[in-house]
Specification:
This protein has six helices and 15 strands. The chain is α+β, with helices and mostly antiparallel strands and 364 residues long. The strands form three sheets. A seven-stranded mixed sheet has the order 1-4-5-3-2-15-14. The chain is elongated and about 100 Å long.
């Protein structure tokens, strides 16, 4: 074989191997970036309380609470999310995000809750076109005292390749027409394997509202894990949350939690809403979970007009084929009397979730 032939073959081989090596280096480098940049926010014993000077102690009357996973203001009815089987990854534009924000704020004005607990509120996420949704709610609803905590702060996700999800800084926001004395962030357990890169970080917040009878109403806002290997981690998270709530109840406080459980709170949502499927994240809460805690689950449901709190976002909203489930609800201590609870039917106009409403009184 001549020298020129060998040289030519070597050149061809290098022209093939070098691009492959570069691609492999990029892939390995990116996964190292994801692993090394992963971090947990940790416990925060003192959160900033905004608009605190305008608030007063809660009177001993009937209250209304609204809880709403707003889906980072991207899940309009035509939106499907890539991690649920759809194609979307980001909001269409900043204007589209602000339009959804306006719709949610109008809904809040109509509902006029005393307490408003929001989940998936983004601050500077690329998926929400960098709109600061936390600040937008604070500005639009100045009569509410508010507390915000980061739920997760994740690295740049380069998938889907045509329109990457990007980096995300998102959290949970508690708003009250009454004074909040103190607030804190408590870290929840998450997946320990590489699944943690998908599960991200998780927390709940504790907000302490003084009441007119001298006791404290302790509010818990939470968004439990969905994208996990087997769904068990959300049960561990719930058990930790319940142990904290039990401790506060046994100390003589009123205790209420609200948020997104990422569990089938009705136990048979597929049967109730008529569309079945295999959805590992939407498992029922195990029997006996609440035994001995002094805490009860309130799953909003109207037998005469059943409405689910969440749709599977595997594509644009289609009630004929899309799995629906109630994953949003409430936890209350035995010294709280629930007057009513319901899913507010928005037709998933602003999120893949509908808000849930509860009215209650505090026992003497």
């Amino acid at each position: 074989m001549g020298t020129k032939t060998r040289s030519k073959k070597k050149t061809i081989l290098l022209s093939i191997l070098i691009p492959i090596a570069l691609i492999l280096a990029l892939i390995i480098g990116y996964f190292l970036y994801l692993i090394l940049s992963y971090h947990r926010v940790g416990d925060q014993p003192s959160l900033e309380i905004k608009n605190a000077k305008t608030a007063e102690a809660a009177p001993a009357t009937e209250y209304k609470l609204l809880s709403y996973n707003i889906g980072f203001c991207a899940y309009t009815p035509d939106f499907g999310f890539f991690m649920d089987g759809g194609k979307g990854s980001r909001a269409k534009s900043a204007d589209a995000v602000n339009e959804v924000l306006d719709g949610i704020n109008a809904l809040v004005r109509t509902e006029d809750p005393d307490l408003l607990l929001l989940q998936e509120v983004d601050k500077r996420s690329q998926r929400a076109c960098k709109v600061d949704e936390d600040a937008a709610f604070t500005e639009a609803l100045p009569e509410y005292t508010s507390v915000f905590a980061v739920n997760w702060d994740c690295a740049y996700l380069c998938y889907p390749f045509t329109k990457p999800h990007g980096s995300a800084l998102t959290g949970i926001k508690t708003m009250s027409k009454f004074k909040i004395d103190a607030a804190s962030r408590v870290e929840l357990p998450v997946e320990k394997s590489l699944m943690k890169l998908i599960d991200l970080d998780r927390c709940y917040t504790v907000s302490r509202v003084p009441t007119a009878n001298g006791k404290t109403l302790v509010l818990y806002n939470f968004h439990l894990s969905a994208y996990t290997s087997d769904g068990k981690i959300a049960v561990e998270q719930l058990n930790l949350l319940l142990s904290d709530m039990k401790r506060e109840y046994e100390a003589g406080n009123y205790v209420i939690g609200a948020g997104d459980f990422n569990k089938d709170l009705l136990g048979n949502s597929a049967e109730i809403f008529g569309v079945s499927g295999e959805y590992g994240w939407a498992q029922p809460i195990p029997e006996g979970t609440f035994d001995g805690t002094g805490i009860s689950l309130v799953a909003p449901f109207d037998e005469n007009d059943p409405v689910a709190s969440c749709r599977n976002a595997d594509g644009p909203y289609d009630p004929a084929v899309q799995f629906r489930v109630t994953v949003d609800g409430f936890l209350v201590s035995d010294n709280v009397t629930v007057k009513s609870s319901a899913v507010v039917d928005t037709g998933y106009a602003y999120s893949d979730h509908n808000p849930v409403r509860m009215t209650f009184t505090l026992n003497p």
